[in-house]
Amino acid sequence: MKSQVDLSNYPLWTALVTPFDEQGNVDFDTLKALVIEQQSASNGLLILGSTGEGLALAQSEQRAIVEYVCALSPSVPIMVAVGGFNLAEQLEWLAFCESLPVDAYLLGSPLYAKPGLVGQTQWFDALLGATERPCMIYNVPGRSGVAISPQVLENLKHHNTLWAVKEASGDIATFEAFRTAAPHVAIYSGDDALMPYFAQAGAAGLVSVAANAWPEQTAEFVRRSLAGTFPNLFAPWTEAINSLFAVANPIPVKVLMHEQGKLATPNLRPPLTHLELSCSQALNNANESILSWN
């Protein structure tokens, strides 16, 4: 069944963290609180993305998280990440999610293998053809190891399920090339700090890490970016967002959310660890700055 939600009403999607307890298990009570907080800010929910450490979770945990969030029946849409290496497994994952009230999917490029134009096209063609729900393709060469070619979008634009692209290469030229290849496809910034810049180039919105820590403030940041009438949006946001990427995401944002009292622990799944961040002063400074921003 197609999503009944108008996704264009949600310019901000929060790439939700996965909270863990002291034993390293998924903390469902805290997950519920995070969902409610994002719902209050009217932010779309992206679960099990890289910020949610989806690939570090067992399949049973992934299923439990999706079922749990769907059972909460949030008033904002739910997008679920689809990514990995094994296409058959991803098709099985899609089939599972199709049985739940999921509104959209984030389709990542295959990891590690570095497929070319033909391989990328075949991968996304199979996934887009396995659902009638809107799909956002994720270009993040820094994590997947391969950049999605604009020609891939050209090859896939016949799919009605191709709704959007999350562009996280940080390259405005790539953004423009995607727009040219598939002008009907919405493009979302995958870099918080670049949102004002990408908005000027026609971005539809942002898929955000920062919104975990600052849901209402980030929503306003996106609104102002898209309005294009607010000067100096890069400050203080650039410095604050840089603090969230001082080491691998989502380490800093989890440390900050723990200090904010939103997470019971800053725990992550190996190989990531909060011990990677030796000092949280920059995060605390950023928190004070953003919470006082208007």
From TrEMBL:
Subcellular localization, per the record? Cytoplasm
Q: Which portions of this protein are annotated as coiled-coil regions?
A: none
Reply yes or no: does the keyword Lyase apply.
yes
Q: Which residues bind pyruvate?
A: 51, 207
Class of this enzyme: lyase
Q: Which reaction does it catalyse?
A: L-aspartate 4-semialdehyde + pyruvate = (2S,4S)-4-hydroxy-2,3,4,5-tetrahydrodipicolinate + H2O + H(+)
What EC number(s) are associated with this protein in UniProt? Answer: 4.3.3.7
Q: Where is this site: Part of a proton relay during catalysis?
A: 50, 112
Which Gene Ontology cellular component annotation is one that this UniProt entry carries? Answer: cytosol
Task: Indicate the family of this protein.
Answer: Belongs to the DapA family.
The name on file for this protein is 4-hydroxy-tetrahydrodipicolinate synthase
Q: Which organism is it from?
A: Pseudoalteromonas caenipelagi
User: Taxonomic lineage of this organism?
Assistant: Bacteria, Pseudomonadati, Pseudomonadota, Gammaproteobacteria, Alteromonadales
